[in-house]
Amino acid sequence: MAGKDLTTLTIKQAAAKMQAGEFTAQELTESYLAKIKERNGELNAYLEVFTDAVDQAKVIDDKRKKGEQLGDLAGIPMAIKDNILIKDRKCSSASKILENYVASYDAYVIERLKQAGVVFLGRTNMDEFAMGGSTENSAFGPTRNPHDPTRVPGGSSGGSAAAVGGGTALAALGSDTGGSIREPASFCGAVGLKPTYGAVSRRGAMAMASSLDQIGPIAKTVEDAEIIFNTIRGKDELDATNFDSENKLDVKAKLKIGVPREFVSNGLDPVVASNFSATLENLKSAGHELVDIELPSFKYALACYYVTMFAESSTNLARFDGLRYGVQVSGQDLLGDYEETRGAGFGPEVRRRVILGTYVLSAGYADEYYYKAAGVRRLIKADYTRVFKEVDAIITPTAPGPAYKIGEKIGDPLAMYLEDIFTVPVNLGGVPALAVPSGKTAEGLPLGVQFTASHGREDVLFTLGRQIETLS
Ligand code: GLN
Fold first, then answer.
1. Is any ligand 1 atom within 6 A of the Cβ of residue 216?
2. SS3 label, residue 459
């Protein structure tokens, strides 16, 4: 089978074929390495391709030869976002300040994937410290959309999504603070899951905004995303917000889906609007009940998210002072050292957010901004609580438009932030959401819808996601 392109298979299919002896993990990995060689020069999805990927695969093949019982992820080649620590490998968050930083331990999710036998292909490009929605904020050049290289792949997990959408990884991990798994998955034609806050341990993920961050899978299919989620979830004593989210509830065959008509009516690209209507029709004909819902506080979600995230990320990034990690540039005195190091190490978007975060937390302004945002966040949570008494899931488009041109929004941060309108409420509410492909534009750009469910109900999301895959 050597030399054959194996990169079209899903995790489930590849696992079955390896189990049946049709090809080895080494051959599967070599197939992906060949694809990376062919496409990564253009896409820039990977910041680094690991030179020992084939050796990792051989270890799995040996285990299989010895008759060891292996799970679905054994020998599956995955890509990892560059803000998730893998012991003894570089991890830079696509920032100059951490360009040569080497991780001293494995993130919890990496421990789990290693136990499952995953082959790590490399680390993927992203917006610096996950701040952005296009991967143009990387210190190492933008990633390009595999469906149209003149366009962005979305962000901040743009490298992971472009790798999966472009066939250079079978699946990937991303992180999502305000949409960074779901938006790029949608732009690249992949499935992306933002788990319930606390369902997946954050240990070993570089913190952006700790009350919003979650790690999750980007995959080709809903089934593959579910396999990865079930592997990386679970109780970790070292993340105090983590809980054991395993639930064994029944998902009804016919679900009640809430459509927030007013919330989704503003600023939609016409092609997204018509795709969204068609998706609603499909769900109706599949027997689900659609009901109109109101989410009155969601109009404040973007403002609430950006104040909260600025505040938390400016605090989290205080540790990059030139003394503890990474780059160090000397100034006149201690304050000068900080200023020179942070000025040289951080890119413009990171500096903007640190400055704004410090501002909204400073004495005199914290009441006006930070605490007000905390109050609004409670209202948004209350909207979810009320609505999930009535419906099983909420549906919206994932993003207001398809992937846009590289350079189109980079000079206008507000236009960039508006792209996050449908994804940020989910992180503020701590609820899970799944982005699923729902069709393409006439030019072949992927479109997607997002399902949101109540805490711990990823099972509802997977059920609906699988149906969309067959309907659209
Ligand atoms: N695009 C959003 C932002 O710029 C989301 C980022 C994220 O989820 N990491 O903040």
1. no
2. helix
Q: pTM value?
A: 0.97
Is position 428 within any domain? yes
Q: Tell me which residue has its CA closest to atom 3 in ligand 1.
A: 132
Residue pair 158/137 in contact (Cβ under 8 Å)? The answer is no
Number of domains present in the structure of the chain: 1
Q: What is the pLDDT of residues 394-434, one digit of tens each?
A: 999 999 999 999 999 999 988 899 999 999 999 999 999 99
131 lines ligand 1 (CB under 6 A): yes
Q: 242 CA distance to ligand 1 centroid (A)?
A: 21
CATH code at 439?
3.90.1300.10
Residues designated as active site: 81, 156, 180
Angle 99-103-107 from CA coordinates, rounded to 5°: 125
309 CB within 6 A, ligand 1:
yes
- Domain coverage including residue 213: 1-280+394-472
Residue 374 lies in a domain: no
Domain annotation covers residue 348: no
pLDDT digits 0-9 by tens, 337-389: 999 999 999 999 999 999 999 999 998 899 999 999 999 999 999 999 999 99
φ, ψ for residue 57, nearest 5 deg? -65, -40
Please state the atom number of ligand 1 nearest to the C-alpha of residue 176.
8
